[in-house]
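Example record

One chain of 328 residues, shown exactly as stored in the release files.
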Amino acid sequence: MRIAVIAFLATGILGCASSPSPQALAKAQGTLIARDTVLIPGRFVSGRQPDGNSVVLHARDGLIVFDSGRHAEHTQRILDYAHDSGQPIVAVVNSHWHLDHVSGNPRLRAAYPQLQVHASRAIEGALSGFLADSRKQAQELIAKGAIPEAQLADVRGDMATIEAGEKLLPDRAITEPGERTIAGRRLRLGLARDAVTGGDVWVFDPRTRVLLAGDLVTLPVPLFDTACASHWRTELAALEKTDFATLVPGHGAPLDRVQFHRYRVAFDNLLTCTAGREGNATCIDGWLSDAGDLVAPMDHALARGLLDYYLGQVLRAPPARRDRYCPA
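Predicted structure tokens for this chain:
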């Protein structure tokens, strides 16, 4: 999410026989969601910048990390997992350029200098545009004393990440969807243009039927900061055609097919409501009702606050602002 929002608010074979299994490793750092596939969950806490979910895939040549988080403690869990596995991190796949998914890249590069980052080129424009603007805005807010003391470390951390932007860039750009062998593991890569960002990468592993969706799916609400909502809606329809059994969102717990369909319906209904005459509260209530137990009761207040912001600042903003991330 953007700084301003939060400021205000074998095919997985292991390297040696004595190495612990992914299942044993997952108990310490994350959750085993499929064979050789471990989720290291992010956190989404009101008043703090979030970390996106990370997933570690065991491959023939080492570990593949899908998204590297924002905070040092999150990235350290990835590094601890790699250390305990006895396997190097040889590749990172970034779903998109939001800082809660890429800020760990420099730390992972420092520990494993030979790793290669696979991502879309959308981050190049973001570094000179959205992220540069966010850094400038953060500087102004700090100068005015407008950021609470408890949030200063997060905001300054984001500013430092933006300043070191070259370390976030991909070594191997993803410019088209298709199959790609990474570290000896054959994966299907999707590329959604102008949905959540200018280039959102998703990964499908046909062997385990796990789909890593990045922020194309997020809970407790969709995050519209840099999104073209109408294109995003279309991409969700495309995702549903993928033969996945488990979908890992950018934020939130994994979903099965039934749960994802419920998410997609809730998303469609939210956009339909916001395009109509119903009040904001009605649209927010509708999202929570449609999503059902996908949003835990403890997250309802956070969901309401985020949606109230997005309805006012994005979904019901004047067309020039609402559609500014949509292609002309």
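Notes: The two ends are 24 Å apart (CA to CA).
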